[in-house]
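Worked example 2:
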Amino acid sequence: MYKIKDGILHKNDKKIFALGESYYPSFHHAKYPVPPEGDRIGEMKKDLKMMSEMGFNHVRFAAIGLTKLDENGKLIIDTPFVDAMIEEADKNNMSVSIRLQGFAVNLRDFKDVLMIDNNGTVQDTTVWLDFIQTTMCHEGILEDNVTHAKGLAAHYDKFENMVGFQIYNEPHYPGSTIFDYNPTTINAYRKWLVKYGIMTEKEAENYEPPRKRKEQSARMWALWRLFARDCLTDFLDNASKGSKMGSDLPTFTCLTSCPVSGDNVFRGVDFFGDARTMDLVGYTCYIHGIGIDYYSMGFLTDMATSAANSEDKECWCVELDSRTYIPLHIFNRNTYATIGAGVKGIVYYQWRGDYPSEATPIPNGCGLVNYDGSKTKNFENAGRMIAFINKMSDFLVDAKRPNDGIGIFHSDYANFLCDALENDDETRRDILRNSYLTKYFNVYRELRQAGYTVTVADAVALKNNKLGIKTLFLPQRHLLSDEETKIVEEFIAKGGNVYYLTTLGSNHSGDGYRHYNKEECVYNPLYRMDDLAYIMDEKPVAKVDNSLVGLQILENKDNKLFILTNIAVEKDTVEVNINCNCDVKKATLYSTLETRKLEVKDGKIIVGEIKDGAIIVAE
């Protein structure tokens, strides 16, 4: 009945927009909506029925229960409650995905396999937000991950409504200090240095990676952090391949927003590496679609969808904020902004709040329903939003982001190099300095405010250029690696246009844009974004006339979809019109509150007043 094909959920071979909830999604010993002594089966049946009645077509569980090796090395799987939930979801006409791994997979009880930080301290496994709690280069641990994923995938493959497997949850390195200095990781890094021609075998034989930024050159710090990033991607890919041995169902993970934050130098999250290994790109989002955060959220979501699309894949928001106390307007605006990114599925976190035991890290923190089964203030509002998205599903499910030809170059090397140059021993996110990321975000925000749909590409994605980038922006040209510079210049040689953000003169207080091939001199003025929008061949499909409204654009074969979000912090309603650079004959506004025909005059769609957001379907 249900299947994910090419990243899109299908029901009886019809494409539908995936709308999901998380339910018993955690392996934490004290994160559950109903305590072990409660009526878990009875409450579960009530909850899944309510989910289905609200309009959800998908639910995400974790494979909680027993998985161990017997004395003959055979994997024993005993997850009766999860099996019962899958069957009950099927009765309620919902598809299911399963998170396969908890915090660690160590079936053979290997010793000394925890990560070690730069101070020689072993990882603290009581930190519940650190979802990987083994080193990632230990051969035995890697083998156990394959055995574990293969067995669980084969076990759950028998259920007809099973559609995919999540590989770990919010995978990243612990962020309080710098990891990982486990001997197996250091040995793997030495081999990595030789593999990429950075050192000879003799040079790498006794080499030690830097434990502080200034201990070695900034380049060696950046390389060490790039290795950590690649190591995480390979670790997830290893478990994904194990899952594929047990089932051909698609795999995905749930990446955090770290790539748009300064602490990714410690966390090691890579959307592009994930896109090249998993079947779809999944991410978590707790950034909100309001105020300046609207653009921070877009920075994250556009990076995730660009990474997926660069490999001809799709993107899902696998975990979207749904706290028990979330303001209704923020829930709505978050959802509009997520839809506008071009995702093919949204899974909220979570359906029911966690039971408030002493050990629960966030008692009754997230959910449309409180831990005791009572409805939150957001319950009815969320129901209207779910009904609305189901109504719009046929418009959304085949819609793609338009190709405006505008891209930003993503470089983790530049990020990590800048981190080494501008910081000493800081690890706290709120005090880290990183001018590269600041410029990266500013370029993104200015392009969005100019009306462009922004694509993000790393070196591999730019070289392949399936994203169709014609004009590329560099946040900081001189921090790129030699290989990245070569790929950018190959792009130029093929007819691409490149601008980079720079500062003119020591007394200049702001940044402007310069063409890549123009000489840096005092009489070669820097462009503002308005200047570039005027001279560039690439023009945005449309632009709104009110800066308090965010605009995202999708296209299917018959329509252009203009997704509007009220991003004003202090205004409940805003007025807006859309100036189109495309042929529009008629338009209809859809929202959770109304449906109405709009006037189209001289290339302008007269929208008028909206509340939290709307989808304009133009023909």
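The CA atoms of residues 237 and 277 lie 6 Å apart. The radius of gyration is 25 Å.
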